[in-house]
Amino acid sequence: MFLRVTIPLIFALGVFGEARACAGFDDGARYAFSASVEARRVIVIDMEEQSLASEIRLDLAPDLVVASDVLKILIIAHRSAQKLTLIDLRDSDLPQIEYPLVITPDYIDVSPIGETVAILDRGRGVLEIHAIKRRDILLHVTGISSSADLTFSADGSSVYWVDDKTGGLNSVDLWSKRNFLQIAEPGQQLSAMSRTADGLLGFVSNADSGDVYVINLRGFDLIATLRVAPNPGRPWGTADGRYMFIPDGSQNTISAISTADLRHRYTVKVDDRPLSIHSGWLDTVIAVVGASGSVVMLDVESGRVLASHRLSDHPREGIVTSDSKTLAVPVANSGEFVFLNMRTQSMGTVLQGLPYDLGEASMAISNNLCH
Hints:
Helix content: under 10%
CATH architecture of the largest domain: 7 Propeller
Number of strands: 31
Shape: globular
CATH superfamily of the largest domain: YVTN repeat-like/Quinoprotein amine dehydrogenase
Radius of gyration: 20 Å
Structural class: mainly beta
Number of domains: 3
Low-confidence stretches: 1-15, 17-21
Number of helices: 1
Strand order of the largest sheet: 4-5-6-7
CATH topology of the largest domain: Methylamine Dehydrogenase, Chain H
């Protein structure tokens, strides 16, 4: 089935036609976006100037926000209304275009090629891949059972998801070919899959068994099971693909696994439960953002602690710029957007006065590549 959405020509040309003369926010490596549900707006952050660039007011609450550098648009999901809002980032007026759906966008993600968007309706168990520019549904799959996020293949042709009920890893490609790989006992708690930057290896954590499964994505087979910690979370990888880091929320540690030989390198204690792990400064430093507001910076090779900082409140996951220099973290309950220098491992600008319910930061081009 294909869904076609008719959009007035003046708006279609504005979003997908020739670039407009007036400057916008279409530099995917410069601008970050964070949504406020209560304020019904999207905050635009200039990562280069470390400043507030703009605020986009919306008619509907923005549940999820992603950006496409190829299409130069911001894509906002509205669950209750079953629709997306598309915003032309090339135009400083930021015109908004309604994109209706027939499913609920509980989760959305832009593919690595930037032209397609995965939309998951968890309640109905439906996955759709939309070619936004053509207004086509390229893929409609039913029977999807997953509480974790989806993961695109490196070329955007396949989508992966785990199923706790079956203990399996699933995939489907744009030609509707499906694969299933049993990796755990049915009913065990599996993390979403994280892949290496080259798309060859996938890593899935099992919170019940303390294992990490390594999957050869080319052949779709299990090649290693690694025992790491009692309660491992979703793996986080370096952008150069050399390491996967496994957080353990029960012991407040992270474990480093080399992707070259699939061996454990070290385990390091951090200040509190790891929320996210970010590689930066040419992938020589990682920043571990803790759930209660700590940021611990470590040397990638040795695990040595380089610096430790404390945020004012509970953070969101954050994001690292594509030049690997800057980590930006929205802070919930305080209306702050905090910048940290990955090269010097120091605190930078703290933007204040923003909405108190800021969501995760999103950029079209960043150093966050493994998810």
